[in-house]
C-alpha cells in the first residue's frame, strides 16, 4: 500500500521533472491526514529542500494553509509561457 503510493509519486515526479507548479496538497499528503510530514515531503525534492521555509510556524509539519501559501508562490514563479496577471 505505502510502496504503491511512493511509486506513484515517483512516477509523477518523472512525468513532471520541471516542477513548474507545486503538486496538489492531497498528492503530497500521502496518508490523507491533512499534514505533510518530512517523510511525505521527501518524495518531492523541491518540497523537501524548502521544507523549513514552507513550515512557517516551525512545528516540523506542513498543514494545508502553509502548503497552499507556498504552492501559490510557486505558481507565481512559473517559467515562460505563463501569463502574468
Ligand atoms: Ca500526511
Ligand atoms: Ca507547520
Automatic annotation (TrEMBL):
Keywords: Signal. Residues 42-77 form the EF-hand domain. SUPFAM superfamilies: EF-hand. The keyword Signal applies. GO terms for molecular function: calcium ion binding. Residues 1-20 form the signal peptide. This is EF-hand domain-containing protein. It comes from Alkalilimnicola ehrlichii.
Amino acid at each position: 500500500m505505502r510502496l504503491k503510493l511512493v511509486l506513484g509519486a515517483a512516477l509523477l515526479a518523472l512525468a513532471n521533472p520541471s516542477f513548474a507548479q507545486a503538486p496538489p496538497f492531497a498528492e503530497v499528503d500521502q496518508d490523507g491526514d491533512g499534514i505533510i510530514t518530512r517523510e511525505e515531503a521527501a518524495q518531492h525534492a523541491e518540497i523537501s529542500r524548502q521544507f523549513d521555509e514552507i513550515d512557517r510556524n516551525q512545528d516540523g509539519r506542513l498543514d494545508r494553509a502553509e502548503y497552499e501559501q507556498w504552492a501559490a508562490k510557486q505558481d507565481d514563479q512559473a517559467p515562460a509561457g505563463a501569463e502574468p496577471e
